[in-house]
Amino acid sequence: MIVTGGSEGIGLALARRFAAAGNDLMLVARRPEPLNDAAERIRADFKVEAVAVPADISSPDAIPAIEAALRAHGAYADVLVNNAGMGLAGPFLDHSPEMVMQLIDLNIRALTRLTQHFLPGMLVRGRGGILNLASLGSYAPGPNQAVYYASKAYVLSLSEAIAEEIAGRGVRITALLPGPVNTRFHERMGAERAFYRYLVAPASSESTARAGYYAFALGLRVCVPGLVKPLLALLMRIAPHRIVIPIVRVLLEPRGAGPHDVRG
User: Fold this and answer.
1) What single-letter DSSP state applies at residue 203?
2) Per-residue pLDDT at 181 exceeds 90
3) pTM of the prediction?
């Protein structure tokens, strides 16, 4: 199986959860050193194969690099975890066009390319599936994180649509929608001091990965981890946008540094 952004945070926690179930892994991320460390720890802890593939999945060279690594190990992608992503905090017009395009390339284009590339093989084999990391923010527009929230709405919509298209063919598609998680993601995107970081208690990477793993194993199409966050998700879906959007704007108001690249 392939896990993008698998060197830290939720991606690493998901990789370890799947490894604990006996799955061999291919971890993909940009930075070789933490990626190699993560693969080495997984091999030592779970006695499974864990291969590190340093690659930027938004690059055209990423899929050929992944395919070459699969061939070298006589493997194929039975499960794909699309975890890698980046965030931007702050008003839309404060972001450079280059950073906005980087986010779209990573959160949307790369995820779509990987899904479209590996899904046909899964359907031929009639097993496996794709776990896409979306966000609780998929359910509402996000002023002060506008492009990030929009990208995660795309991930959720794409996941649910494909899941319906391939229903009954033995392949599952799950979207994991965590709220704030105790990783460096919020700090790196300049949102660590936003109001929601004080109001909503963050979950751990491990609990988020556990929920995502079991949702995928059970064939659920959408998973919102936790006890309170599913209620928040329901409120975000049923409340009128004229009420939800101003509240989200206040919650996401940046109080720290400007936007940063937080790619895995």
Assistant:
1) B
2) no
3) 0.91
Annotated catalytic residue within 76, 139, 148, 198: 148
The pair of structure tokens assigned to 194 is: 């936003």
- In degrees, rounded to 5, the angle at the alpha carbon of residue 132 between the alpha carbons of residues 64 and 102 is 60
Tokens of 39: 């693969």
> Is 198 in the active site?
no
List the domains of the chain with CATH numbers. 2-252 (3.40.50.720)
**Contact residues for 99 (Cβ-Cβ < 8 A; gap 6+):** 88, 259, 261
Q: pLDDT by residue (tens digit) across 70-109?
A: 999 999 999 999 999 999 999 999 999 999 999 999 999 9
Contact (CB, 8 A) for 212 and 176: yes
pLDDT tens digits, residue range 201-248? Answer: 778 999 999 999 999 999 999 999 988 888 889 988 899 999 999 988
Cβ-proximal residues to 194 (8 Å cutoff; 6+ apart), any chain: 89, 144, 186, 251, 252, 253, 254, 255, 256
Task: Count the helices and strands in the chain (H runs, E runs).
Answer: 11, 7
